[in-house]
Amino acid sequence: MLEHLRHITQEVNLASDMQESLRIMVQQVCSVLKVEVCSVYLADYNSHQFTLVATEGLNPKAIGVVRLGFTEGLVGLVAQREEPINLQDVSRHPNYLYFPQAGEEQFASFLGVPVIHQRKVLGVLVIQQKASRKFSNNEETFLITLSAQIAGAIASAESVSLFSGPAQGLEVRRLEGLPVSTGIAIGAATVVYASADLSSVPDKQITDIEFEVERFQQALRAAQNEVVTMKERMTDLVSQEELALFDAYYKLLSDNSLGNEVVGEIAKGQWAPGALRRVVEKHVGVFESMDDPYLRERASDLKDLARNVLLHLEDNRAERPTLDSESVIVADEITASMLAEIPSEHLLGIVSLHGSPSSHAAIIAKALGIPAVIGFHDIPIHRFEGKHLIIDGYNGHVYLSPSEALEKQYQRLIREEMKLTQELEQQLHQPSITTDDVHYPLFVNIGLMADFEKSVQARADGVGLYRTEIPFLLRERFPSEAEQIQIYRSALEAFRGKSVTIRTLDIGGDKQLPYFPIDEDNPFLGWRGIRVTLDHPEIMLVQVRAILKASFGIQGVRIALPMISTIEEIDAAQRLIRQAYYEVQEENPEAKELLQPPQVGIVLEVPSAIYQIHNITSRVDFISVGSNDLTQYLMAVDRNNAQVSSLFSNFQPALIMALKQICDACDENNTPNYICGEMAGDPIATILLVGLGFKGLSMNARSLPKVKKIINNISQKEAKECLEEVLKMERAKDIHAYLFEKIESKGLGGLIRAGK
Ligand code: PEP
Ligand code: MG
Q1: Helix segments in 88-206, DSSP class H
Q2: Of 463-467, 588-592, 740-744, which range is least confident?
Q3: Quick one: CA torsion of 742, 747, 748, 754, rounded to 10 degrees?
Q4: Distance between alpha carbon 486 and the CA centroid of its chain, in Å?
Q5: Which residues pair with 390 in a beta bridge?
Q6: ∠142-144-147 over CA atoms, to 5°?
Q7: What are the pLDDT digits (tens) for 646-699?
Q8: CA distance 385 to 164
Q9: 500 contacts 462 by C-beta, under 8 angstroms
Q10: Which one, 102, 129, 625, 643, has the greatest CB density within 10 A?
Q11: pTM for the complete prediction?
Q12: Hey, whose CA ends up nearest to atom 1 of ligand 1?
């Protein structure tokens, strides 16, 4: 049974034509389960109807003709209940509705199973039989498993169909993802792909076919030569039979095999990497659908060989792809280093198929003020290349080849947004006080050099979080003490006279230094932040010494320790900081008066710290809540996994209760409490944070004017009352809606959604 299932699923997943593959699938189900009818009904959410799209056993003329409303018939009932319905005699069921044009009346027994993808019913899979009998457990589980396995392919085919041609009339081709960075962008898509990732290579049309063929053949020869070298190296290590495998690889890479086919694709005007991807995908599909496990394995060999050819093609490329005009970039997963490489003046918007709103790449997108959306797993990335897109970073929508009318509407929203930004910029020098005169200092989170700009300094009361790993991420080795002094000094100079909180190196998790790889099964629960630097005191000491030396003659420097989960970690880190302080004093006796012992605090982002908050406050000078990781660890939800990102909300009642506990304990012990995660820069959360009594909020510089505007328009009393209301609520979505409405009612809706 398993083998049959695998076979059928494979076929559906590889299909370039969904209609055709569903036709084959229904035939195969009938033959495997020995039933007389198998049909697929797909949901159309515009007309609220199911349509028969494939059948074996019913009249084929009924395909595309038989339609039933979402609540009609047994198919409608299966979808409504979102569970299988297994009936021995359909005619007795009150929902029974038969379609004479399908010739359905002769079939007594019925088993319908919903096809569900990401909680959405996409269709219903049905088997029917003349004889009146209940379908067996085996038949039922077979159909349920099949339905779960083909759901992704059906969802993807639905999205893919949105890509064909421009939108007609009132038609709207919209992909729904998750909002990452607010704002709206309109422009052409450029696909950027990770090096040697064949599956994400986009299609591109070229004109110089001769040049493209030449560079492909060079890459092919280079990959063949590698196989020869590999074979030589293995000669004494493996048997003759096993060595023959290398000959097979060599042949696969020859002109007669892969070579000519790829050249054939190039001759049609496709660039070499795209041609290679097309040919390899076709062959891999054939291998993967084979019954023989040995032959199936060959699919991964072929992918491996093709990756090598691609690597050589990339080596041969005159230059790496750059954005030479304004574009929306589309990537399988946008990484922080990708964003660092692309000149931001050309970057209109970002679409990332994978990732999550709180990933570090997302944080950088927000810092750069670039609208971004994520979460389109099922769409082959190359479909986006060159497409005209609208990115709605408020709602997480991407519009494909939009109609003129829709584009005009969004152009208007962009103009309104620009006007609002200008108005807010003009009010930047106003203090951040509530209507009842309470001052809430607003700090900025920094990391990129651009953050040291004058415009950033002017708007902030200081730096609440300096993510020092960002300069580490952009290098090819650990920066020396002297280099670090220079980096930190420029930040401290830029914000002279204001407090600057420098966080010690927070690597691990999704922040990997290219020169210090950490390979773990569970990186967010592994060697991260303070755990790494305490295990490598030489790294921590160099960094702290550099921070101290950079701060000669400058006051207000604070050090924050990331990922603290135990008291021992605080004690050990403080010992190292003291050691570095005495060393620096000893080395620079003349600078004694210029050097103050730094204030030391923690980034509170691991829930265990909440339960030891009193022990912590007695040891540190301040606490800064890292709401990104605190949400991740409190909710047990990977901040980078789009699949579970609906759980990742800063409005979860559990998180708000946790913040309340932290703030109360800090008040009791007179320890200043700040917040520096993304929640601090979300204007919808501002009322809550003011109500909770944080002593300062730290955010990306672009969010600051909006947050200040909210603070200027509420009183502390009102914020506390709102908090009381929110603490009674049980669901994140209710809390979000309540706060959203509150801001709208003050006429400040333009701060939290598109338009005025
Ligand atoms: C946080 O976790 O909220 C935080 C500020 O740190 P980072 O996002 O850099 O992990
Ligand atoms: Mg963190």
Answers
A1: 137-161
A2: 588-592
A3: 110
A4: 33
A5: 186, 399
A6: 105
A7: 899 999 999 999 999 999 999 999 999 999 999 999 999 999 999 999 999 999
A8: 13
A9: yes
A10: 625
A11: 0.76
A12: 626
Question: How many CB atoms sit inside 10 A of residue 319's CB?
Answer: 5
**Which one-letter DSSP state was computed for residue 498?**
S
Q: How far is the CA of 563 from the centre of ligand 1 (A)?
A: 9
Mean pLDDT, residues 117-140 taken together: 93
Structure tokens of 480?
């020396």
Measure the CA–CA gap between 360 and 677, rounded to whole angstroms.
Answer: 11
Give the position of tokens 């409504």.
80
Among the residue ranges 168-182, 447-461, 543-557, 572-586, the one predicted with the least confidence is: 447-461
Secondary structure (DSSP) of 515-578 = TB----SSGGGSS-THHHHHH-HHHHHHHHHHHHHHTTT---EEEEESS--SHHHHHHHHHHHH
- Is 676 a pocket residue for ligand 1 (Cβ < 6 Å)? yes
Q: Which pair of tokens denotes residue 190?
A: 């450029």
Q: Which of 30, 38, 663, 676 is catalytic?
A: 676
* Ligand 1 neighbour 463 (Cβ under 6 A): no
Q: What is the mean pLDDT of the chain?
A: 88
User: What is the number of alpha carbons within 13 Å of residue 613 lying toward its C-beta?
Assistant: 27
Q: Measured between alpha carbons, how far is 727 from 731 in angstroms, rounded to an integer?
A: 10
Among residues 60, 61, 93, 100, the alpha carbon closest in space to that of 74 is found at 93
Size of the chain, expressed as the number of residues it contains: 756
Neighbours of 194 (CB within 10 A): 12
Cβ atoms of 488 and 505 closer than 8 Å: no
- Farthest-apart Cα atoms in the chain, separation: 100
Please give the Cα distance from 586 to 531 (Å, whole number).
28
The angle subtended at Cα 537 by Cα 535 and Cα 543, nearest 5°, is: 125
- 533's CB contacts (< 8 A; 6+ apart) are 504, 505, 539, 540, 543, 573
CA distances from 397 to 143, 176, 350, 381, 393 (A): 33, 5, 12, 16, 7
Does residue 46 register a pLDDT over 90?
no
Instruction: Please list the residues that pair with 445 across neighbouring strands.
Output: 465
As a whole number of angstroms, the distance between CA 686 and CA 719 comes to 9
d(CA 345, CA 349): 11
Question: Would you say 370 and 347 are in contact if contact means Cβ atoms under 8 Å apart?
Answer: yes
What integer pLDDT is reported at residue 318 of this predicted model? 39
- In three-state form (DSSP H/G/I as H, E/B as E, the rest C), the secondary structure along 73-117 is HHHHHHHHHCCCEEECCHHHCCCCCCCHHHCCCCCCEEEEEEEEE
Task: Identify residue 64 by its one-letter amino acid code.
Answer: G
> Please, which residues have CB less than 5 A from ligand 2, an ion?
605, 626, 629
305 membership: H or E segment, kind and range: helix 293-316
**CB 605 less than 6 A from any atom of ligand 1:** yes
Q: Active site includes 30?
A: no
**One-letter identity of residue 394:** Y
- Backbone region of residue 439 per phi and psi (left: phi > 0; alpha: psi in -120 to 50; beta: other values): beta
Are 418 and 410 in contact, with CB atoms under 8 Å apart? Answer: no
Taken in order of first residue, the domains within the chain and their CATH numbers are: 2-161 (3.30.450.40), 174-192+320-421 (3.50.30.10), 198-314 (1.10.274.10), 427-751 (3.20.20.60)
The two tokens of residue 301 are 């060999």
Please state, in angstroms and rounded to a whole number, the distance separating the CA atoms of residues 337 and 470.
9
pLDDT score recorded for residue 137: 93
Asked whether the beta carbons of 201 and 273 are under 8 A apart, the reply is yes
- Compute the 3-state secondary structure of the chain and give helix, strand, coil in percent, each to the nearest 5: 50, 15, 35
Residue 457: both structure tokens together: 């300094």
Q: What is the DSSP annotation of 603-634?
A: EE-SGGGGGGHHHHHTT-SEEEE-HHHHHHHH
Say whether 676 is catalytic: yes
Q: Quote the CA–CA distance of 375 and 175 in Å, as a whole number.
A: 10
Cβ(682)–Cβ(629) under 8 Å? no
Q: Whose CA is nearest to atom 3 of ligand 1?
A: 626
Is the Cβ–Cβ distance between 634 and 606 less than 8 Å? no
> Is any ligand 1 atom within 6 A of the Cβ of residue 632?
no
What integer is the mean pLDDT of 362-366?
79
